[in-house]
Amino acid sequence: MERQASCPSTAAPIGGLLNTASFLREKGIQPSPQRLRIYEALASTREHPSADAIHRQLSPEMPTLSRTTVYSTLELFVGAGIAQELAITGSQLRFDAEVSSHAHFACRSCGCVVDLGGLQAASLPELPLGFIAESSQYFITGICPSCTVSTLA
Amino acid sequence: MERQASCPSTAAPIGGLLNTASFLREKGIQPSPQRLRIYEALASTREHPSADAIHRQLSPEMPTLSRTTVYSTLELFVGAGIAQELAITGSQLRFDAEVSSHAHFACRSCGCVVDLGGLQAASLPELPLGFIAESSQYFITGICPSCTVSTLA
DNA sequence: GATGGGAATTGTACAAAGTACAAGTCTGTT
DNA sequence: AACAGACTTGTACTTTGTACAATTCCCATC
User: pLDDT tens-digit profile of B34-58?
Assistant: First the structure.
């Protein structure tokens, strides 16, 4: 889990952030400076950050931002359907502002998480009667290209 | 995460345990009393226990069994390909002696994990060039039948 | 049967991720 | 301006898992 930044996840914004405040309000979330910056930080990266990664990123500009706020805000976003949680690394939750169904790859060496293509819903296993699905995840773990190269060196 | 035991995962053994010791030896694992009991505990349940759950289960009969041994033994099994890790709950790893590719359901209320059917390989997203896949997981989270009933009550 | 060496196990200490909760601050409304 | 409720903060704590040194066990050899 060392070379996070060098992995092949481009860092382009996902959508328009012109008016994050009204977007949050539409989703039933009262905006606050903390919530705006946390959402923007999440939506402007494709690195699928953990809660602590977001806290580390925002701390310089918001020195009093507490870890508790980041955790509770991300949970609020997940509950409102504007973010999804990925349990992909096994040791920490990663978050994604892109909520459409798509698969993920996690590198066991550097910890990076990158997007893969979508899944064909028709081919997924059906849920037995009585189970209520709320979300689903498909992920692959292995070694990313950067780490393959540096392992060979 | 309360009613673990009442969830719909039947507790029948997966395979023959007649000679666990020689099975482990075949897989390149030196048997020991601890390893035998840990493997048998894992293979004889469909509850996908966590490492600590196995430790709690075996502690009465092996009072000196240490948590470290359980953790390192399970990792040994995963490396040898006779167990798989499930990162499904986000907060702890669950283990499964059934290593064939199949999906899982996790109940957000009681924490139970049950087996679902297999996946059609053809429908899975393809991995871009340079990525090396080592394992994959498909899981659905939601509410299991037991918890649906008790939530309504 | 004794003995030496490597593997396995143990126990303690530690680290990381996340949660609980009470106190403080902010914000919007009256 | 004052109140109430929502939001944020900070501390303490729990859970999960890892590091590592010391001990114990097993087994081959003498």
Answer: 999 999 999 999 999 999 999 999 9
- The DSSP H or E segment spanning B153 is none
Structure pTM?
Answer: 0.87
**Of A131, A147, A148, A152, which to mutate for an interface test with B (greatest number of B Cβ within 10 Å)?**
A131
The chain A residue lying nearest B7, using CA atoms, is A131
CATH label of the domain that carries residue B91? 1.10.10.10
What's the domain range around B126? 7-152
Q: Which residues contact A8 (CB under 8 A, 6 or more apart)?
A: A112, A114, A144, A145, A146, B130
